[in-house]
Amino acid sequence: MRRNVDVNVTGIHSRPGEPTEKIITTSRGFYENMDDGRRLVEYDEEQDAGNGVVKVHNKVFIASDGKSMEIIRGGETKNRLEFGEQLEYDTEYLTPYGAMTMKVVTNSFDFNSSHEEEAMKVIAEYALEMEGQVLSDSMIIIEIKNAEAG
């Protein structure tokens, strides 16, 4: 059954020679248990693209065993990311400026869920690499809870 949820996403990015960047987004979305046991969270967010705001549609699939997740992003910025303990994943990051091939190297992954999945939290720490160079050491925290009535 699909239900309304509040989705809070925190992204923390440390790039060599730059101050640590922290981005927090809050969205209303949907959550449902899939027939194959995965959990699906869908939500939209707006991102500043420098020359205006870009809308991005996100689908987050959390594995049935809670040990990995996949994020599929659609809109003007498209990509597919996978996170799981010690997982390395190559992805093509499509932007309005062109495509970039990157590697996501997960350093740690954790998923917690409350009773009856009224609240869930996913934390992935990872490095983003391009052509063998680390672009950033990052963390994504996704918090999902039943939407407040009203």
Describe this structure in words.
- The chain has 150 residues and is an all-beta fold.
- It has strands at 3-14, 21-33, 39-48, 53-62, 68-75, 79-84, 88-95, 98-113, 119-130, 133-146.
- It has a ten-stranded antiparallel β-sheet with strand order 6-5-4-3-2-1-10-9-8-7, with no helix packed on it.
What would a concise description of this structure say?
By secondary structure, the protein is mainly β.
Poorly predicted parts:
none
What structural class do helix, strand and pairing data support? Answer: mainly beta
Strand content: over 45%
Helix share, percent: under 10%
Largest sheet: 10 strands, antiparallel
Radius of gyration: 15 Å
Order of helices and strands: EEEEEEEEEE
| Count of helical regions | 0
Structure keywords:
150 residues
What's the structural blueprint in terms of helices and strands?
Layout: E1 3-14, E2 21-33, E3 39-48, E4 53-62, E5 68-75, E6 79-84, E7 88-95, E8 98-113, E9 119-130, E10 133-146
Antiparallel strand pairs: 1-2, 1-10, 2-3, 3-4, 4-5, 5-6, 7-8, 8-9, 9-10
